[in-house]
Amino acid sequence: MEPTVTNAPDASRYEIRDGDRLLGHADYQRDGSTFVFTHTEVDPDAGQSGLGSTLVRAALDDVRAQGGSVVPQCSFVRGWIGKHDDYADLLAGSES
Q: Domain named N-acetyltransferase: which ranges (predicted)?
């Protein structure tokens, strides 16, 4: 079974799960259409590599689908965007 990523707006985070098991989350604070990502955490005992990348990619794809922008205060999200130029347009204040 592939892990799934969902937005949990009541908890202000995106979650990656394998069934009912929480594997990780990317926390955010929302200001209108801007998502300020503050912390990302993945269970080191999940036994799967790439979960953080899967989580961040899905979260950013969802922000893009909503027409939103991103402020990556979290070093993991900031580094991930830095390695994936096709997501740089999501940065708040960037030219589209």
A: 6-92
Domains of the chain, earliest start first: 4-90 (3.40.630.30)
3-state SS string over the chain? CCCEEEEEHHHCEEEEEECCEEEEEEEEEEECCEEEEEEEEECCCCCCCCHHHHHHHHHHHHHHHCCCEEEECCHHHHHHHHHCHHHHHHECCCCC
Largest Cα span, the chain: 39
Q: How long, in residues, is the chain?
A: 96
**pLDDT by residue (tens digit) across 38-88?**
999 999 888 778 999 999 999 999 999 999 999 999 999 999 999 999 999
